[in-house]
Amino acid sequence: MLLTITNEKPPATDLGYLLHKKPARVQRFSLAFGAATVFYPEASDNRCSAVLLLDVDPVGLVRPKGGETAFALEQYVNDRPYAASSFLSVAIARVYGSALKGQCSDRPELVEQPLPLTAELSAVPARGGVGVLRRLFEPLGYRVESDRHVLDSKFPDWGESPYHAIRIAADVKLRDLLSHLYVLIPVLDDDKHYWVGEDEVEKLLKRGEGWLVGHPERALIAERYLKHRRSLVDAALTRLLDEDQPGADEIRTVRDEEEEVIEKPLRLNDLRLDTVHQALSHVGAKRVLDLGCGEGKLLRHLLKDRTFDEIVGVDVSHRALEIAHQRLHLERLPERDTKRIRLLHGALTYRDRRLEGYDAAALVEVIEHLDAPRLRALERTVFECAKPETVVLTTPNREFNTKFETLPEGRFRHRDHRFEWTRGEFRAWAEDIAARFGYAVEFAPVGPEDAELGPPTQMAVFRR
Ligand code: SAH
Question: Taking CA atoms, which of 131, 338, 384, 431 is between 20 and 30 Å from 2?
Fold first, then answer.
């Protein structure tokens, strides 16, 4: 694995001072997982390149507890020696530590100087493709070039690999370039195979200081850097963003398998979507919002029904929207359908003019993901500002939980749920909303009703 950094501003060999590595010497460093070598293939006044060669020893790697291995030999046969990954970030911090911190005792004035720098990486596993590569580096001002490697040049039929040779260039301070690489290399790699803990949040915030908060892909960066561990992503984003800024609650709260497994025996998901679909049709809605659309299950239902002219999915999670985009095949829809559907990124806790003027809005299994202050904010966004004619809203009925065999007593159906309400609690909340914002509300069960406990899901239909 090679990382080459080139400076083209004379005297280009200033790079040696900034990196604390003399161009004339080859230096070796031993690391817990292998060895690093730094050398300069070119060191002239006009152009100076420093190479960090990282040699990862796959046999010497011991996977920490909590990691999963995909196959028995994976510990020994994997891409880690060849691909840029978090190992390279660790090597950057070890070998170029002073430069990363912006220390240069010999020539301190150099640290704050943007230089025409280029970084080249020989094999980056860009998960999500070149699009992701560009979305990560271009907002930081880099020109990005990439070349995709084939899997095996002897067998071209095998097709392309996920690995790219990449080259990014900008007028940038060296320490910023190193921070960007430190954070974004593992993000491109998106390896879920090892465990991350709280200290990774600190590293992300430290290395992301000054640039991550303004990065349009900060949610994706935090999610991938923190290995999709929701509580860490939540902590990082909340600390990163001022509470008042839109996006403070960019938390990945997509309903995942956990809840689906619990509810599956009842086919509750399908029933819920059918019931909501019917309720929307019943009021004659043509232009509808799916607020907290997640991965787009309801959107798919609605898209098939031509009575809906305009269907808009809104979610705070970039990741959910990415998945929705793929599942709905938005790239490949016939034109008459592409005109009917749109996905918007947005937080329902902030007033959003794009949501005004619709016939109806669905909120399917969303409110229970919000803590009390955020739910208060959502109420105003939906019922006071967006003000659709009809709101169809569903949430679990907690009374029914004892009937789910796989759900331990006292637990919610999903880890991210902040509450699950009884029928009485839901009714009281919905009636208060209706009274405050000038709606009438009716309730309906979703799923097989138990004589005592009621239905598994409860629905309210608000009409203005
Ligand atoms: N309606 C979908 C998803 C439900 S999960 C379904 O039934 O499958 C809850 C969804 O609400 C998640 O996708 C989550 O990202 C989204 N969400 C949570 N808080 C949000 C907020 N403040 N603004 C917008 N979306 C939010």
Answer: 131
